[in-house]
Specification:
Elements (H helix, E strand, L loop, with lengths): L6 H11 L38 E7 L10 H7 L3 E6 L6 H7 L4 E6 L11 E2 L11 E8 L2 H9 L2 H4 L3 E2 L22 H12 L2 H22 L8 H11 L1
Parallel strand pairs: 1-2, 1-5, 3-5, 3-6, 4-6
Pfam family, one: DTW
Organism: Shewanella gelidii
EC number: 2.5.1.25
């Protein structure tokens, strides 16, 4: 078994260990890499690289979301050094989440559509050049289906106390693995890429977007019976990401 290398890997191993039965996903008979969860012949782990970023991310994941091969939250942790990931609970709040949100090093922002903000919640679409007391931004992303994300937000009062960073992308989501019912619903990694763009790290945003595209292409190839016939797009993305 490969050694977990970041927070999402570790959370995956934890969630898998406490499961009463194996998680059943589409393509469950595939031989998958234990870290990227792609088919072993399309594993992308050897291409992964850490970026130099001043952004931090907190992924609050819905129950078995971390077990899904289609989850793109792990892609953020693949590239961004400071990423934490925890499983959300309706009945009790993880103390580690609260401690992180209240840590003096960070200024947290919940990343969510402004239409769901509470009446007293501050909503921003841009970030100040300097945060209070030179704190590091901590971008909180709710990772799950659209319905699950809404549930997590509505049933987590501690998130209502945070300033909300609302992002309104102009183009339709490229996330074709698990489309939501809303045209503008984005994959978790797509959201993070847009956040990095807003934060003033366009090169990192582009790297994450390319890594996401490579993930999608590798996933689709893993599902295709003709997966070995045309690897040109995948190879092009690998080269683009390495540049």
């Amino acid at each position: 078994m490969k050694k977990p290398e970041h927070a999402v890997h570790r959370l995956f191993q934890y969630r898998k260990a406490i499961s009463s039965k194996p998680f059943s996903a589409r393509g469950k008979n595939l031989l998958r890499c234990e870290l990227c969860l792609l088919a072993q012949k399309h594993c992308t782990c050897r291409y992964r690289k850490q970026l130099n970023s001043n952004a931090s991310f907190l992924l609050i994941m819905y129950d078995d979301e971390v077990l899904k091969p289609s989850n793109s939250g792990r892609l953020i942790a693949d590239l961004i050094p400071d990423v934490r990931a925890y499983i959300w609970s309706r009945t009790h709040t993880n103390r580690k989440i609260l401690d992180l949100l209240n840590h003096p090093q960070y200024q947290p922002f919940i990343v969510f559509p402004s239409e769901y903000a509470t009446e007293s919640q501050t909503v921003v679409e841009t970030l100040p050049q300097k945060l209070n007391q030179n704190k590091k931004p901590l971008f909180v992303i709710l990772d799950g289906s659209w319905r699950e994300a809404i549930k997590m937000f509505r049933k987590s009062p501690y998130l209502h106390q945070l300033p909300m960073l609302s992002i309104s992308p102009e183009k339709t989501a490229a996330y074709t693995l698990r489309k939501g019912k809303r045209d503008f619903q984005l994959g978790t990694a797509e959201v993070a890429a847009l956040v990095l763009e807003v934060f003033g790290e366009p090169e990192n945003a582009n790297s994450l977007a390319t890594w996401f595209s490579l993930f999608i292409e590798s996933s689709l190839l893993s599902r295709s019976r003709q997966s070995d016939k045309d690897l040109s797009k995948r190879n092009s993305l690998i080269q683009q990401f390495a540049e």
